[in-house]
Amino acid sequence: MSIQVEGLSKTYGQQKAVDNISFKAVPGKVLGFLGPNGAGKSTTMRMLTGYLKPTAGSASLGGFDTQRQSLEMRRILGYLPENTPLYTDMYVREFLTFIADTYQLEKPGIKVKEVIGRVGLGDEQHKKISMLSKGYKQRVGLAQAIIHDPRILILDEPTTGLDPNQLTDIRELIRNLGKDKTVILSTHIMQEVEALCDQVVIINKGKIVADSLLNELKTKHHTDSLEEIFRSLTN
Amino acid sequence: MYAVFKRELFSLLNSMMAYITIGVFLLVSGLLLWFFPDTSILEYGYAELNGFFSLAPFLFIFLVPALTMRSFAEERREGTYVLLASRPLTDWQIILAKYFACLTLIIFALIPTLLYYYSIMQLGMPKGNIDGGAVAGSYIGLLLLGGAFAAIGIFASSLTKNQVIAFALAVFLSFIAYSGFDALGKIFAPGIPEDIFVWLSVNEHFQSMSRGVLDTRDLVYFITFMLLFLGMTKLVIGGRKW
């Protein structure tokens, strides 16, 4: 159940948002997808989830092509989009039941209960989503991504706007998920990469500038500071 | 697809808009049919429902877009469409689920008006003297007309993130489809151009069904009309330009 990206490109008019990128992610190793704002992280992730059509190249998730076998691919995919869009007029439990129903899961009630416990939404489960704080909304976002126990997880900036306590909780959760699933997460917080990721892919202006294991990257650049490496590669 | 349909229907029923729309529809049609002397059936002297069936399309021109305006416009504004698009659902399933949710509400709006039918049946001389076939035809026609306007409304909603623009555009397009083509046809002398415009007019096909004759040509017209607008919606949504 790996993610394979080959020569993926997306062009908007003259501008190349993503330019011929290739990389691979494997189960059990969390892949950190880094890059400055506007480097093409979200565009790449949207192509991986089949939401956007690539201009060229292809990607496959768990062997399913994102364009040709889109529906099968989406069954094994959990996706947390950027800015965590949610139906804020729904109640937490109602929303998660709706998501479970879109996968036609058996016993959706039990699945919803499980996932609420897993992301720590117990006390908030009867509230309207619009009433929740940013951190809890983020948890609902994660819950909708993992409710069907996907083999592959794509998380677009999963920890923006969280306070330090919430940060620790969510990171712990992602680390646990990463043990047996293939996880790609995008971020520009370097401590997060240190805390969570095994493999690092850095993109800048749509092109890949680094793709290696975290410790290999450090030895290669003769420094322990990821921040320094990031700056030297993207500046 | 059923999950999305259910969510859409519940969210419409939670949003007040559905109650206002159905309420206004019943209030206005009730007032015009039974209370205002100029248009009242009681003053008119004939126990028939034609007044209602010529009034309802005009109410639909304004009320159906009010039901459909948020369907895609809100998803665009809130960025929530990606939540649906990353599930194992095709674009068509999502569009149809939203469409049928709106259509269900149109049916909810029409059900109480069966009371008018019952009242008039009781008022007829002798009792029960009403052309049931024509009424049934008119109701089917009204439902298809509502379906056609809902397709226009869903399409308009997919074009913009602004619900007000979606509403205005849908009202305009529905009006053109209902009366505009008729009026255009009248510019020409009887002949082929007039026939084409008259054939394009929703009103023409609705009138034809109101006579109580279920002509397959009218059915084909309405189904083609709906598929055309839903197909255009699919093009807009599938393009992901937003």
From TrEMBL, chain A:
Source domain of life: Bacteria
CDD domains for the chain: ABC_DR_subfamily_A
Domain ABC transporter: 3-230
Keywords for the protein's UniProt record, in alphabetical order: ATP-binding, Nucleotide-binding, Transport
One MF term in the entry's GO annotations: ATP binding
Family designation: Belongs to the ABC transporter superfamily.
PANTHER family: ABC TRANSPORTER, ATP-BINDING PROTEIN
Name of the protein described by the UniProt record: Protein involved in gliding motility GldA
Originating organism: Pedobacter hartonius
Automatic annotation (TrEMBL), chain B:
Protein name per UniProt: ABC-2 type transport system permease protein
Subcellular location: Cell membrane
Record's signal peptide: none
KW Iron-sulfur (keyword) present: no
UniProt entry keywords in alphabetical sequence: Cell membrane, Membrane, Transmembrane, Transmembrane helix
Principal cellular location given in the protein's record: membrane
Upper lineage: Bacteria, Pseudomonadati, Bacteroidota, Sphingobacteriia, Sphingobacteriales
Organism: Pedobacter hartonius
InterPro entries on file: ABC-2_transporter_component, ABC2_TM, Motility-assoc_ABC_perm_GldF
Any GO MF annotation of the entry: ABC-type transporter activity
Keyword match Transmembrane: yes
Transmembrane segments: 12-35, 55-73, 94-118, 138-157, 164-181, 219-237
Boundaries of every ABC-2 type transporter transmembrane domain copy: 51-199
Pfam families in the cross-refs: ABC2_membrane_3
Any one Gene Ontology cellular component term annotated for this protein: plasma membrane
Membrane protein topology class: Multi-pass membrane protein
